[in-house]
């Protein structure tokens, strides 16, 4: 009613349509001007509008998109993206070395998120797709990545997500007692062996716990090591996957390592390993796993 009189039917209908349009518009990302983001290749990627169809080719990017509240915009992910559960039902399109380019194109994404090391980036761009190549290796990289994705997707959730990660990290860091700080630690990423050095985000997390990483930053974030290097470094604690832990004592000379000799080898399940090696929104959970390892690193080695 207006001043006690019923509105004409056409006016009422028009009012309802206008209200619906207003509410619908408020639910969509709004951006007046195109956004330009410089990715990790140094290339400027121009986004005329917030992307609505996204393909992610790296698990940490998939997890960050979802943590920013944009999971519903993902139309395809790499073969290893498995968190949160809802991404498991999406088309899986390969990985760093074997992305299924034709499948990606068929999904009609308006943005592809990839690592700088993804081999198919150039081909995807040649086919007319917009690719943002970002690959976090340090905590600073992750902070920048969250800000970039928040800007690209226009979610407005970046600051809150980063604050939550910072709070979770601070809480986990307080779980380690001074008595175990300073222990020499070796974090194995894979059996090659590839390790996480002081320069990686894993190394930075270990440093927050007061651990002494035996792999120096000078070797790069995730170097491939000569196994003899680890024997000479003689770590007091080893963090690795359950599969590697079961065979670690069989490596030549490794039974002499303090961590192996004293059964201070932490064996992480595949799902736990995913949390530990992905620089994304679950870093606080990963740091808690590391803290628990340093406090109770007891996993019997054959």
Which features does this protein show?
302 residues; alpha/beta; Rossmann fold; 2 domains; 4-stranded parallel beta sheet; 11 strands; 39% helix; 14% strand
Topology:
Blueprint: H1 9-27, E1 35-38, E2 44-47, E3 54-56, H2 59-67, E4 74-77, H3 101-106, E5 111-114, H4 121-126, E6 131-133, H5 139-153, H6 158-173, E7 184-190, E8 194-195, H7 201-208, E9 212-213, H8 227-233, E10 237-241, H9 242-247, H10 258-261, E11 265-268, H11 270-277, H12 283-295
Parallel strand pairs: 3-4, 3-5, 5-6, 7-9, 7-10, 10-11
Antiparallel strand pairs: 1-2, 7-8
Helix pairs in contact: 5-6, 6-12, 11-12
Précis, in short:
It contains 12 helices and 11 strands. It has about 300 residues and is α/β, with parallel strands linked by helices.
The coarse overall form would be globular
Spell out the helices and strands N to C. Answer: HEEEHEHEHEHHEEHEHEHHEHH
Can you count the helices? 12
Largest sheet composition: 5 strands, mixed
Rg calculated over all Cα atoms? 24 Å
Find the CATH superfamily of the largest domain: Nitrogenase molybdenum iron protein domain
Q: What portion of the residues fall into strands of 2 or more residues?
A: 5-15%
| Helix fraction bin | 25-40%
Distance between the termini: 82 Å
Low-confidence stretches: 1-28, 298-302
At the fold tier of CATH, the topology name of the largest domain is Rossmann fold
Name the average pLDDT: 90
Could you describe the 3D structure shown?
With 302 residues, the protein is an alpha/beta fold. It folds into 2 domains: 35-156, Rossmann fold, CATH 3.40.50; 177-295, Rossmann fold, CATH 3.40.50. Helix content is 39%, strand content 14%. The protein is built from 12 helices and 11 strands. It has helices spanning 9-27, 59-67, 101-106, 121-126, 139-153, 158-173, 201-208, 227-233, 242-247, 258-261, 270-277, 283-295; strands spanning 35-38, 44-47, 54-56, 74-77, 111-114, 131-133, 184-190, 194-195, 212-213, 237-241, 265-268. Strands 7, 8, 9, 10 and 11 form a 5-stranded mixed sheet that branches. Strands 4-3-5-6 form a 4-stranded parallel sheet. A hairpin with a 5-residue loop joins β1 and β2. α5 (139-153) packs antiparallel against α6, α6 packs parallel to α12 (283-295) and α11 packs across α12. The longest helix is centred in the N-terminal third of the chain and has 19 residues, at 9-27. The radius of gyration is 24 Å and the shape is globular. It starts with 8 loop residues before the first helix and ends in a 7-residue tail after the last helix.
